[in-house]
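Minimal example, chain plus manganese (III) ion.
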Amino acid sequence: MAFTLPALPYAFDALEPYIDTLTMQIHHGKHHQAYVTNLNNAIAGTPNENKSLEELVKAAGSLSPAIRNNGGGHWNHSFFWEILGPSAGGIPTGELADAINATFGSFDDFKTKFAAAGVGRFGSGWAWLVKKDGKLEISSTPNQDNPLMDVADIKGTPVFGVDVWEHAYYLKYQNKRPDYLAAIWNVVDWKKVAEHFAAK
Ligand code: MN3
């Protein structure tokens, strides 16, 4: 079954001024669409056609680079759109907040460590908050890898993640990845993130 591009769950200009409209249009309509198209081309006519996206991603290490990169790209971006939103930001609450405070000291300490993971990722990739054996960890992955993959250094359930490819921020922030990573907290939907943390 062919994969399809999920609709963005809000308007392209909904994350202004933190993430600009043109970036969202190109990021969703061109970049994410290309991962979907290239993934479909890579699995067409093969037994992988019948697998779910999560099955493909989890087995990425034994599949072709085209499936690893584009399957990861499709999974990562589908996840990313859902954990952002308008009228978002603020601070996490409930058990997620307790876990962040217990693990990293405070929400501010978490933000600092998470941003360092994103800034420290050389080239293109993602920064992640991962739930592993019930505990939170920060990690980063290259390219379109993610913590679900068998090839990930830190494997677990993605709770939160930020795309640090230049295409995610260059139009507005140019070379200033730290500024993008500082702004993104304004559009994080912590309710959605808490749902990922609560899922087993
Ligand atoms: Mn991207």
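The mean pLDDT is 97. The beta strands are 125-132, 135-142, 157-163.
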